[in-house]
Write a structure and sequence with these properties.
Shape: globular
Largest sheet: 9 strands, antiparallel
Mean pLDDT: 94
Strand order of the largest sheet: 4-9-10-11-12-19-16-15-14
Low-confidence stretches: 1-34
Structural class: alpha+beta
Radius of gyration: 27 Å
Distance between the termini: 29 Å
Number of helices: 18
Number of strands: 37
Length: 805
């Protein structure tokens, strides 16, 4: 018998089709009610790329659709197009030439003597001026200039269908109805656009490519295909894009090998792909010239009709997106998305629920569009960027941002989207070992600090209040163990997760020092983002490292690595876990009781133990939970988008659904742009991803070996349903509720059929109100319960139905 916290590997597939969940080997009894299509709608073309553009993407490629009438600018990206790195003068991965052990000892000595040092002093001794770090680049714009038409435009609509992953632009002009369709196909590897009209011969335009001047560019046109290639001045990175024009009727002409002119066509299909010679491999990060791959890809896609590409795209996308449906009372309405935002919380509950449900699904859409196998993970803006010098380099901040991007992948049933994350973090291990030696003076394991790029940057920068986060590797490793807990894939744990976790833990076993004040193992120097001094044993540092050491210990036990288990045991027995209650009832941010009750800083990193950690159990640690609530109340519900998204998750873990919903609402009102992109400001995508994860956390939790149904349901969502949420233990879940009471839950246990799993269950009401049925074997089961909690033994590959009597 096994507890569901440590399930056996999965051998089942979970498929969704025709609105139903189909579990191989069993029958589904809790199909979702039909839910309205989700979309983001405008009644005009975009005046702002950032706030009104509509994003499409296939993981590697992204584009933002503006939908202009006379000129349509399709700005696009390919995720490996970066300046800086190897090939750029002075790039050094952020490493000092020699280990800076003396500087580290100096800072530790100063902290031991004075209790703290300023961030400026720490940065002066330990930070480094970076060179050739690089920026994520816009690839350019495909500009469509249409034949002059002085007729007025009416019935304009521009919408992004989250169900179909397609942008549509429709309008009437001069008695003709025009339609434009835009999608980014993962299976065909192209952005596809179709322009059509309800009368023949009405598509006439000139198309050309514009790119920034920080690169060389050579263009040619062959058989209606514009091929543009060159190199970035910064680092010599080779890039290419191919754009195929396929008109139906009319004429096509090339202009100076730079533009394509279409005259009098009935319709026009445009296919676009792009690539570089980047390779995700330390230390040169270069591979083959992209031309041959792009050519073959475009030849294959160009032989298909738009309808075929569209069908392939939808089947691929919907296989992921349709796994989860949420009904919280939304309805099909005609309001534009800016109207929904502008009227939010002004008395129209149906419109409010529609906006919230759309926002939840938009986060899932964005992750599918910006994180697919074979490319890099979602960065600070997913895959979308219209600049050559974007904010924060549009890189990967690893002191929460990259991690937050992926909080929703497991819970909202898209675990495949973790692949780019795992590939990327794996690629940081080798350069991270060099950082461990040169920056931290540690000869074992790997780590990195605040931020990284596509070029293996694992060193430090010079920004005093944001440069020193050696816990980054420990936080990144958390997702590996979580992937195992959700899937039960012991092969993944053994071959991929544990080696990375163990190496990260080896760094900490050597880097930790004993606090002379109490003999506990602590992080030194330690910093709580992005405020206060450098000290010994700040709460966030301790909590994150504890999370890594405990997870690695659990994995070592599971895999039988007794030698390393003993090493971890010894460290954990005397480890400072970073949990202290201060003088005004708060959870302390520092080891010393220095918290200011009037501090409303957006960073609440010292509540990591509540979420995404699991040290604070709402049911077993009431005093710590109360302290965390005190801290959350003191900090307030404001902050930037990512901060509010984190607070949604934290209030959900604190089992306060109404407060979580309040913060979600304020994020929509304060930190959300008209196209629903998260606004830091500027646009930063982690708030979208974090909020979607927070909604899932409000509906189900499973982080401490217990399946908790509707743990933080807000009053505003009194009746509803959800299908397809994943929980730890290899389980998928559907639920229905009415008047805040759970009426039905279907639990799909996806572990091997020969295993028996003990499921610890917690409901929103006493379990005496419910009956439990083994739907696979059509038998009634006895549920052992006490109040709202209970347990039952479940078989693998089985479905269980919990029904209100």
């Amino acid at each position: 018998m096994t507890r569901f916290l440590f399930p056996m590997p999965l051998n089942t597939l979970l498929v969704r089709g025709c609105g139903l969940w189909l579990l191989l080997g069993s029958t589904c009894l809790c199909a979702a009610d039909t839910v309205m299509e989700s979309s983001i709608r405008f009644d005009q073309s975009a005046n702002s790329w950032e706030s009104e553009g509509l994003p499409i993407g296939n993981g590697a490629l992204g584009a933002v659709i503006s939908g202009g009438i006379a000129n349509d600018h399709i700005q696009f990206n390919e995720k490996t197009l970066w300046t800086g790195g190897p090939g750029a003068e002075g790039y050094d991965f952020g490493w000092p030439e020699k280990p800076q052990t003396s500087a580290l000892k100096e800072i530790r000595k100063a902290i031991a003597k004075d209790g703290s040092v300023t961030p400026e002093l720490a940065a002066e001794r330990l930070g480094r001026k970076i060179t050739a770090y690089g920026d994520y680049q816009t690839f350019g714009e495909l500009v469509l200039t249409f034949a002059k038409n002085d007729s007025g435009v009416s019935h304009y609509q521009r919408s992004l269908s989250l169900d179909n992953a397609q942008v549509d632009v429709n309008f009437e002009q001069g008695g003709v109805s025009y339609k434009r369709e835009y999608l980014a196909s993962y299976p065909d590897g192209v952005i596809a656009v179709k322009l059509s009209a309800n009368k023949p011969g009405k598509i006439s335009l000139t198309a050309g490519l514009t790119v920034p001047d920080n690169r060389t560019l050579t263009t040619r046109i062959e058989n209606g295909r514009l091929i543009a290639s060159g190199k970035l001045h910064s680092n010599g990175l080779q890039f290419e894009t191919q754009i195929q024009f396929l008109p139906q009727g009319g004429e096509l002409a090339a202009i100076d090998n730079q533009q394509v002119q279409i005259s009098g066509a009935d319709s026009l299909v445009i296919l676009l792909n792009a690539g570089t010679d980047y390779a995700q491999q330390f230390s040169q990060y270069r591979g083959a010239n992209p031309h041959a791959k792009l050519q073959q890809q475009m030849d294959t896609a160009g032989a298909k009709t738009f309808a075929q590409i569209q069908q392939n795209h939808r089947q691929d996308y919907q296989a992921l997106f349709n796994r989860v449906q949420l009904d919280i009372g939304q309805k099909a309405i005609t309001k534009t998305t800016p109207d929904l935002l502008g009227n939010y919380k002004k008395g129209d509950a149906v419109s409010d629920r529609t906006l919230e449900a759309t926002y939840f699904q938009f986060g899932r859409y964005l992750l599918i569009a910006s994180s697919r196998a074979g490319s890099l993970p979602a960065n600070l803006q997913g895959v979308w960027n219209n600049s050559i010098t974007p904010p924060w380099n549009d890189d990967y901040h690893v002191n929460i941002n990259l991690q937050m991007n992926y909080w929703l992948a497991e819970t909202t049933n898209m675990p495949e989207l973790m692949t780019p994350y795992f590939d990327f973090v794996d690629s940081l291990v080798e350069p991270g070992k060099i950082s461990a030696k040169r920056v931290a003076g540690v000869n074992k394991g790997w780590t990195l600090f605040l931020n990284t790029n596509t070029w293996g940057f694992t060193g430090v920068i010079q920004w005093p209040t944001a440069f020193w986060q050696p816990e980054a590797s420990a936080w990144l490793a958390q997702h590996y163990y979580e992937h195992y807990l959700f899937s039960g894939d012991k092969t993944f744990l053994r071959t991929r997760a544990y080696p990375l976790m163990k190496s990260a833990a080896e760094f900490w076993l050597e880097f930790l020092i004993k606090d002379p004040r109490d003999g506990k193992w602590i992080v030194s120097p330690s910093f709580s983002p992005e405020q206060g001094p450098f000290t010994n044993g700040a709460a966030m540092s301790q909590q994150i490292v504890f999370d890594l050491l405990r997870n690695t210990h659990e994995a070592a036990v599971l895999l039988g690595d007794k030698a390393f288990q003993k090493k971890l045991d010894k460290k954990l027995q005397n480890f400072d876990n970073g949990l202290r209650i201060g003088s005004w009832g708060q959870l302390q941010e520092w080891k010393e009781d220095r918290d200011d009750p009037k501090n409303e800083h957006r960073h609440i990193s010292h509540l990591f133990a509540l979420h995404p950690g699991r040290q604070i159990d709402a049911h077993k640690n009431p005093e710590l939970l109360k302290a965390a609530r005190t801290t959350l109340n003191a900090r307030g519900d404001g902050g930037t988008g990512w901060s509010q998204a984190w607070k949604v998750n934290m209030w959900a873990r604190a089992l306060d659904g109404n407060r979580a919903h309040k913060v979600l609402g304020e994020q929509l009102q304060r930190s959300t742009l008209s196209n629903l992109w998260d606004n830091h400001p500027p646009f930063q995508i982690d708030g979208n991803f974090g909020a979607t994860a927070g909604v899932a956390e409000m509906l189900v939790q499973s982080h401490n070996g217990e399946l908790h149904l509707l743990p933080a349901l807000p009053d505003a969502w009194a009746s509803g349903s959800v299908t397809g949420l994943r929980v730890r233990g290899g389980i998928t879940l559907d639920m229905k509720w009415r008047n805040r009471e759970l009426t039905e839950a279907t639990i799909y246990v996806n572990t091997e059929s020969k295993t028996t799993t003990t499921i610890q269950l917690r409901g929103p009401h006493p379990l005496t109100k419910y009956s439990l049925t083994d739907a696979t074997r059509k038998t009634t089961l006895e549920l052992t319960f006490e109040g709202n909690t209970g347990s039952f033994n479940a078989q693998g590959r089985s479905t269980y139905l919990l029904l209100k009597k």
